[in-house]
Amino acid sequence: MPARGHGTAPSFNPSKPRELPRYFTELKFLFASCGVTENAEKKALGIHYVDYNTSEQWLSISEYQPYNDSQPALPYSYDAATKYSMADLDRIMGKAARTDIKTIGQFADYYRKFYQVSKWLTDSGQIGSLERDRFFRNGLGPSLWSNIQHRLNIVKRDVRPGDPYTMTQMKAAAEFVLHGTNTSMNGTKYSQQTPGLYARNDMPYFGQSETAPSVPPVKIEETKKRFADMDHKLETVLATLQKLTTNGGSINNGAPQT
Fold first, then answer.
1. What band does 43 get if pLDDT is binned at 50, 70 and 90?
2. Rounded to an integer, what distance in angstroms lies between the CA atom of residue 65 and that of residue 74?
3. In a 3-state reduction of DSSP, which class is residue 190?
């Protein structure tokens, strides 16, 4: 068995109780590879690799039985109920809502994290499926949700007004409206794009990967000169029209009439 603190030795951080099952799994592999078979030795080694305060706490628990090959006894103070909480789900949902998801990569990152926590909470009976779906919808943000709702109104006409959509339905709709956007989680290329029903790579917009055509600078003095020339020509035309009216429709430029 490796020494405590060695790079190959198992470790457990009491501030992360959800990692306790993994700690015992690592111990089990080490016991098998090192030929440790006695329960008393397994229990001693299990306590040996944790910090002093944690080892003292475990030794004070009468329910803590020696390690068993088929099912290790976990201290009751680290019950599986501490794995995830509603606060974890609320934190994931709130971060996604503040991010304002605009790419398929950002959405996939949100879905993976939300699914991991919500599935455990649902399986353990802490939340129901309707509550889970409502939490998932709240993390989508107003702009993305508007496009998702538009899509669902088309493909899910059998859902009555007011009835909630399932997380599976919302996921499919989100993947549709975000199709063609960046797959990275930071969304560098499409970070300014508002997702629409037909977002595509071959339809660039100004501010995205394409740049707006350059406009030549306006020369003020040259513009003033052009307007002055136009004014002069307009005055000449008006004077000619006035002579036509005065001379009965002919211009003789001062020559005597016959």
1. confident
2. 8
3. coil
